[in-house]
């Protein structure tokens, strides 16, 4: 057997139907140039994105892989890739990069900033999949929308009352979460507590603390007309309310962990901080997103010791180098049970993000597992089972999707 196993392991790893358990919508054609394309290969911003990100191994590899699909001749450069894609019809561009992925179903978080203004709605993506796209509700954005509606209603009446605002917010938040929990289009929730106050989420029981937070937010909103939830007590309350309702309805709650832009406090982005909240909600399914990179081993530990924790190994494709991706997959497999790992692209804005996120993840799974087979640490049948679970079966079970895998061409 060669380093990369037999043809059957390669065939399954590179083409088995996939459920993308965490992604974001694509931009509308008229907004295709709204965001810098360099965001495809980095979470950085400003000079760190526009000047530095193009000098990473991740960018060099993406350039080669995208240039191959685009049919660019001669020396490949990042600028040539951008010129070639910009010159293409948008529908053709989307089809070119999504058709080869083998993604059967996408679970879309449509709460990413800018989605409502510039991106397609989640159902639009059905044209690229063999099963209907489902929705993930981002709870902090939901809570912000509710607070904004409550405040605006009082402002229109020139009757700002913090207590009534607090009561209205609590009631509407519960009703909205409960409604989404019962909505068959919604298969889970997503929290970005990691970005707002960190993953050391506490149990909030005192209504007075929530009322005080609502009062402070109301004062800021009245003065500035800006609203962004970054108040610990209120953010913790929103997460805990979500966890309780999600646990009752059996829908997972995804958490951004690890890898992100410079808005996060890196030291508070390890899922290790979540141990108390995981224990507090044993009936709720926690999905740790983005491989928790660079805290992958922390995530693997939690996945191994708590039955209600699951690990997504996404976003590192294509954000880190090939060797780094192989190392992350190996770390995921060090301790985490293979029936509890899931894959995602974290695709967003550009169809190329779905393509690279799929191609690179499939290659990493194949090569890492083939190495274990070649060392006789597992059988090829076991490796194939791991691939099928990671790409499709586990997400299908955990999100209660009820799908049957459908190979391309069937």
From TrEMBL:
The entry lists its GO molecular-function terms as: hydrolase activity
Q: Which Pfam families match?
A: Amidohydro_2
Question: Which domain of life does the protein's organism represent?
Answer: Eukaryota
Supply the InterPro entries for this chain. Answer: Amidohydro-rel, Metal_Hydrolase
Sections of the chain in a coiled coil: none
Ranges for domain Amidohydrolase-related: 225-399
Q: What is this protein called?
A: Amidohydrolase-related domain-containing protein
Q: Which organism is it from?
A: Phanerochaete sordida
